[in-house]
Amino acid sequence: MKLNVEQRKIVELEPNGHMLIKGVAGSGKTTVAIRRISFLQMHYCMEDDDNILLVTFNKTLLNYIHYQYKKLEDEEKGDIEAWLSGDSDVVIKTIDKLMFSYFMRYLKRHQLKRQIADQQTLYKTIQQAIMQLKEEYADIKILSPKYSSFLLDEIAWIKSCGIPDEVSYQQIDRIGRSTGGRNTPQKLTKNSKTRQAIYQLKERYDELLEAKGLVDFKTMNLLALQQAQEVDQSSYTHIIIDESQDLTKVQLHFLKTIHDEKSYGSITFVADNTQSIYSHSWLGKGRPYTTIGYDMSGKARVLTKNYRTTTEISKAAYGLIEHDEDIMGNVDFVKPSLIDRHGHAPIYRFFLTNNEQIQFFKQEIDQLRQEYRLEDICIVAKEKRLIEDIAMNLENEGIPTEILHQKQPDFGKEAVNLVTMHSIKGLEFKAIFLAHLDDGVLPNMAQVDVEDEETVNTEERKLLYVGMTRANELLYMSSVKKPSKFLKEINPNQLRFKRDASLRPFQKIAISNYQFSEQLLDVNAKEEIIRQWMIYQLIHTYQYPKDVLSIEYGVQQFSKRGYVDIAVMIHVDGEQIPYIFVETKSFGNGVTSATEQLKSYMSTSDHVRYGIATDGLDISIIDRNGEPINDIPKCQPHFLPETKYKSTYTDLRKNKEYDYLQDKDDLQTVEIIDQTTGLAKEMDQPIQVPIIGDVAAGLPMSAIEDYRDTLPVPEDWLIQAQDTFVLQVTGDSMIDDGIEPGDFVLVHRQQTATNGDIVIAVIDGEATIKKYMPMGNTILLVPANTNYEPIQMNADDVFINGKVIGVMHRNHM
Ligand SMILES: Nc1ncnc2c1ncn2[C@@H]1O[C@H](COP(=O)(O)OP(=O)(O)OP(=O)(O)O)[C@@H](O)[C@H]1O
Fold first, then answer.
1. Which end of the chain has less Cβ packing within 10 Å, N or C?
2. Distance between CA 258 and CA 251 in Å, rounded?
3. How far does CA 562 lie from the centroid of its chain?
4. How far, in Å, CA of 401 to CA of 539, rounded?
């Protein structure tokens, strides 16, 4: 892969202390980070103790880097293998693993034994601590076991920010903290007894853990930091922090401590705040780098081009975040720019049951298997239990699966990958299925007792954004029972109902916007919702004007009369014939019986070519033989009654051709299309050129006022407006040059001509149209029709009346 200029510049930048690489999803941040290692290793590791650290937040990403770079065929492959095996001056680790090793050294140094407590023990411990302090803080409602998860989270936050004492906690701003909603205990006012109680609870909880020989994760981080500060500082000459938007303040502080600030050393923050999906992250919440001691003015580089996904997927994903003020207002927000890579628009499907969703995955995966390897496909869901459930069901359907979790995911296995939304960050797959985009799952408002609603919305919206931007080529999204509210934020025109069809996902049309309402017996009928959606799609997506649609179209089946829900009636040779039949059923009622009915209706007509049966959830599109097809055709101009006269104009001077379209109702309204570019020609004020008669009459000697009609034309077709006239061609002498009887020619009045001009020449008082060819003292007037002979005349006997500058040939009368 060849880096682009902005990427290469960053890779090869002379290291100069701290710097920030901001970039949109898929802009090559990780790619640049990896290449940068080679560059730094080669040019800026001069002393024996010089070394480089690449730290990632997410373990799956680390394994993925491993996997991706093992696949590389170039010389870098060797380097990266050496780095990953630890057999070089380059260390690539997750922040957790790195800090854990410092923590172990801390324990050893202090001859301590501590283990990391599991989640269940943490819950028990916090509840014990609550019970012990309850009496002392009897008036603090928050001190209750029912707020355990809130309290645990707050304590984790205090530690992840490295807040040293109660006084500091009393004064600190809480970004995104719940301020008193439905399940919210209460507002965490500064300098309050509530904060005092929480801080005391933290102290008690830590004591209880310590007594059990345990620590939680955040304390492990604090002890690792202490180890770095006291003993192991300045260990790395160059540090590159991928996904730095997700790190806590303590983690960032730790990395700062182990950075060796040599004159040629560097610490590089790689970040995309739009992908910050952890509530304890420090920089991702928009806090400035100065809060961790770095001034990034003039030190930031930006990557804006998304190389990963197609324009269609990028646009839909961007549509999701562009209305989120928190995201757009973030100082480090970068607006993505698109590269010219096109593909399918994201597909969205809604299901009533889990099983329907599974059947859909199975069907699509079976299809995709013809083009993709199974390991190029990944199914993503918000929660672990959901992906486990999907994996089990797909296995039952005979599709091998591999759940990618934090341990050692097997990326190369011949199986469909499954991963949670949090863990897919940094990864990419050719085809992505975002499953269970359900109300209650995304966003999960149970979290509102910890974070405030806005914060939860923003964070979960970012999660969906992260998921959407993982797809190289194909993105499927689906929900079960009730869709996530975020799906409504995506412009439906950027989504599709199925892969190879233009049809947009099902949408309810407001009753006030129903079409054909005067013909409806019951506007409230359930099937009507589906029919109106299809009418909307036929008009807006497939561009059939309402005039060609008809509802309750009667067909005769032997002795029975049937009524097709929607018929698209096109115009052929002045006759209106049915072309598409649509059968609709009420929502979720299935399409099997509707398809059978459709087939029988279609068999009654010799004309109808396509059929659609849908219940809004599923769709069947068939041809006239009843065979399934991908899509119906969009409306073509020739399906509609002719409303315009169409002519072709040839500009002989510039040798260009135009379509010249005149409204049948108003001949002065014209539209001119350049045939080469297909673009309409701009024409402010057309010139009205007089149509003065036929060629035989020639041009008048002087200005005339008595003409019946004019031809509106753009000024640049003419040499001079007042000397231009239109004549109608009568004979066929120029037919081989495409000038036919009945055509109109634009003639510029002039007495001279040059070789090859088509002229109106007057001989013996009669005008004729011929090609002009001077030969010595004579002139040849050459017809373009082999049936006629050229006329040779003395120059003095030929009077040139004008030169033909353009020909208007009418295609349809
Ligand atoms: N200059 C380039 N030309 C072609 N492909 C590129 C280029 N730069 C990056 N890519 C490809 O774009 C994809 C995204 O790259 P990478 O994972 O490094 O981006 P990222 O910014 O770290 O993404 P994210 O933050 O979304 O995880 C990869 O498939 C990578 O190979």
1. C
2. 11
3. 43
4. 42
β-pairing, 337-338 vs 758-763, is unpaired
Query: For position 48, what pLDDT does the model report?
Result: 86
Q: Tell whether 149 is in a known binding site.
A: no
Q: Taking Cα atoms as reference points, which of 728, 793, 733 lies closest to residue 764?
A: 793
Tell me what the mean pLDDT of segment 212-218 comes to. Answer: 96
Backbone angles phi, psi at 132, to 5 degrees: -70, -30
ipTM of the complex: 0.97
pLDDT value at 59 more than 80: no
* Cα(418)–Cα(520) distance, integer angstroms: 47
User: Which of 760, 769, 528, 743 lies closest to 649, judged by CA?
Assistant: 743
Q: Active site residue: 202, 218, 770, 803, which one?
A: 770
- Alpha carbon distance 40, 267 (integer Å): 12
Distances (CA, A) of 390 to 219, 382, 448, 784: 36, 12, 27, 75
- Start-to-end C-alpha separation, the chain: 58
pLDDT per residue over 97-125, tens digit each? 999 999 999 999 999 999 999 999 999 99
Q: Counting atoms of ligand 1 from 1, which one is nearest the CA of 306?
A: 12
pLDDT in the model for residue 450: 55
Q: Clarify whether 770 is annotated catalytic.
A: yes
78 annotated as belonging to a binding site for a ligand: no
Mean pLDDT calculated for residue range 161-179: 82
Q: Tokens for 610?
A: 């396509």
28 labeled binding residue: yes
CB-defined site of ligand 1, < 6 Å = 1, 3-4, 7, 23, 25-31, 272, 275, 307-308, 426, 428, 469
CA separation for the pair 37, 52 (Å, rounded) = 7
Say if CB 211 and CB 112 are below 8 A apart.
no
Residue 472 CA: nearest ligand 1 atom is 29
The token pair that represents 538 in the structure block:
């036929």
What atom in ligand 1 is closest to the CA of residue 303? 21
- Contact between 53 and 239 under an 8 Å Cβ cutoff? The reply is yes
Residue 605 known to be catalytic: no
C-alpha 319/C-alpha 542 separation (Å) is: 23
Identity of the amino acid at 726: V
Q: What is the predicted pLDDT for the residue at 183?
A: 44
- Give residue 15's Cα distance to chain centre: 35
The span from the CA of 479 to the CA of 537, in Å, is 21
Q: What is the 3-state secondary structure (H, E, C) of 399-454?
A: CCEEECCCCCCCCCCCCEEEEECCCCCCCCEEEEEECCCECCCCCCHHHHHCECHH
Using CA positions, which residue lies closest to atom 19 of ligand 1? Answer: 28
DSSP H helical ranges for 650-783: none
Nearest alpha carbon, ligand 1 atom 9: 28
Task: Using the mean position of ligand 1's atoms as its centre, give its distance from the Cα of residue 414 in Å.
Answer: 24
Whole-number Å distance between alpha carbons of 286 and 455: 12
The amino acid sitting at 126 is I
434-462 CB burial, b ≥16 within 10 A, e <16 = bbbbbbebbbeeebbbbbbbebbbbbbbb
